[in-house]
Design brief:
Blueprint: E1 12-18, H1 27-37, E2 38-49, E3 59-63, E4 70-74, E5 82-89, E6 92-98, H2 101-110, E7 113-119, H3 125-128, H4 132-136, E8 143-150
Parallel strand pairs: 1-2
Antiparallel strand pairs: 2-8, 3-4, 5-6, 7-8
The structure holds S-adenosylmethionine (SAM).
Length: about 150
């Protein structure tokens, strides 16, 4: 049986998950647990690396071989679920799992978590100031926020 959160059904009026579901292999069980511990009408505030724009091998390309040079955001293989292992600090390895957005939205819906708000925030000014290429790519959102409500 998949691990359960140590809380009774319907304990919370809100659950927040920020940049963690990308590291969880069993997404179905984890979302089912969020739904289980929420009260009816409770909210799930769900932050993800934007699944469409943060695909494997995605990123800002500055192609100086073209004449004139071209800059664009490359999107990798979006529809394929893909796991890579990231070294987040020395000798600490965790999985990073790319899934299409529909995989998340449909799993939320299957657990009675219906979408009521979606945000794709632009990178903040402080982040953009760090490097010129960030400014060039500032119309590409890195984050996705979904707010769902339990039926
Ligand atoms: C990118 S950090 C986000 C941390 C924090 N939520 C924030 O927004 O600053 C990813 C977090 O996911 C946690 N994590 C990784 N794999 C996990 C798993 N299988 N189950 C629960 N948490 C996990 C890590 O410990 C880390 O704290």
């Amino acid at each position: 049986m998949p691990p359960q959160l140590p809380f009774a059904d319907g304990t919370f009026d809100a659950v927040v998950a920020c940049l963690v579901f990308e590291h969880i292999r069993d997404v179905d069980s984890a979302i089912a647990e969020v739904a289980r511990v929420l009260q009816p009408g409770g909210r799930f505030c769900f932050f993800l690396n934007h699944p469409l724009l943060q695909t494997p091998n995605s990123g800002w390309i500055d192609d100086q071989f073209l004449d004139p040079p071209e800059q664009y955001w490359r999107i990798g293989p979006y529809l394929i679920e893909d796991e890579t292992i990231e070294e987040v600090e020395k000798d600490v390895f965790i999985p990073f799992i790319h899934r299409p957005l529909s995989r998340y939205v449909n799993t939320l819906a299957a657990n009675g978590l219906l979408l009521e708000r979606m945000e794709e925030p632009a990178p903040p000014a402080g982040f953009l100031a760090k490097a010129e290429e960030y400014l060039a790519a500032s119309t590409i959102p890195r984050l996705l926020y979904l707010r769902t409500r339990k039926m």
